[in-house]
Amino acid sequence: MKNLSATAHLVAMYRALESDRPNALFQDLFARRLAGGEGALMVEVLGNKQQETSAMAIRTCVIDEMITHLVRSNRVNTVLNLAAGLDTRPYRLDLPASLRWIEVDLPDILKHKEQNLKNEQPVCSIERVKLDLIDVGLRKALFTQINASANQVLVITEGLLSYLTEGQVASLAADLRQQSNFHWWLFELASPMVLKQAQKSDRQQRFDQYFANGKATFLFAPDAGAEFFRPYGWKLTQFRSIWQEACRLKRQTDLVRFAGFPIRCFAKQYWQAITERSGFVLLERDFCTSID
User: Fold this and answer.
1) Mean pLDDT for the stretch of residues 169-174
2) Does domain 59-198+219-285 bear CATH number 3.40.50.150?
3) Which residues are CB-contacts of 173 (< 8 A; sequence separation ≥ 6)?
4) Residues 76-127 pLDDT 10s
5) How far apart are CA 170 and CA 40, in angstroms?
């Protein structure tokens, strides 16, 4: 996970490249500063710059929309961003000043962010917690502490779950569910088919070599999709297909543009598997489910 934390610079650079577009889906004025030379280098090494920028723009834009809507409509008073990386939403989204935003990540990442944003003013209150989320004991203690001082918590794990095993995701799901005031959980989810295709790509192989010495980095894509989380006390409340969002936002990758029509026409089961299991997931705490 420490090696993978460097992807925060890469993601920030993709946000900077999207912000440079004349028809940008969002403006992140801090992204290039945070990405630095490391992010700029990684973008060139991994290649496929335009498509990867589009993919990251879709993810960023859709999650922006879901956060904003949830905060405004459900009176969320705390956002807990786990593995926050170099995310800048507390500085660029239209959020209420009363909102409490908590970022959790490894010390080096948060130190870099603090140094680069020390003269900037967030739109809401912001706290940063330097912690390795793989340490179950420390994260449980943190969750308990936050739960005691918050009423309505939205948890975000953008860009995190795909790097974890099913066992690690299940453990995290159970730990979050134990907190009575953790009401929502937002993340992106890949289908097994998308994961399998990604693992075969040259770009993914370069990614794995760069960040994990050749080991597979993308691990979590459950056969059950969002239903994977139901036994751990979470129910699906919103799902937005990445394919449909790509079309809506006009940020189609070549795969979406050229493969979508034949898949829909001649392999409907594959199309259904992709559209229903690859996308952006909002889970809600299921108060009716009893967790042992």
Assistant:
1) 98
2) yes
3) 229, 232, 233, 234
4) 999 999 999 999 999 999 999 999 999 999 999 999 999 999 999 999 999 9
5) 34
pLDDT band at 266 (very low <50, low <70, confident <90, very high): very low
Burial bucket for residue 185 (CB in 10 Å: 0-12, 13-18, 19+): buried
Domain locations along the chain: 59-198+219-285
| Closest to 253 (Cα-Cα) out of 40, 58, 65, 63 | 58
Please state, in angstroms and rounded to a whole number, the distance separating the CA atoms of residues 263 and 49: 25
Q: Write out the two tokens for 13.
A: 């650079």
User: Does residue 214 contact residue 57 with C-beta atoms inside 8 Å?
Assistant: no
**Residue 15: CA atoms inside 13 Å, Cβ hemisphere, count?**
27
Give the separation between CA 78 and CA 98, rounded to whole angstroms. Answer: 9
Task: Name the token pair of 106.
Answer: 């490894």
> Cα-Cα-Cα-Cα dihedral of 15, 215, 5, 17, to 10°?
-10
Q: Write the single-letter amino acid at 197.
A: Q
Closest by CA position to 281, among listed 24, 32, 11, 63: 63
Instruction: Return the bridge partners of 188, or none.
Output: 280
User: Cβ distance 46 to 85 under 8 Å?
Assistant: no
**Residue 290, number of CB atoms within 10 A of its CB:** 7
Amino acid identity, position 285: R
Contact status, residue 68 vs residue 142, Cβ threshold 8 Å: no
pLDDT of residue 75: 79
Show the tokens assigned to 202. 């040259």
pLDDT-derived band at 291, boundaries 50, 70, 90:
low
Phi, psi (rounded to 5 degrees) for 283: -100, 150
For the beta sheet containing 234-241, the strands, ordered from the edge strand earlier in sequence to the opposite edge, are 125-130, 100-105, 78-82, 153-156, 182-189, 279-285, 234-241
| Tokens standing for residue 210 | 């760069």
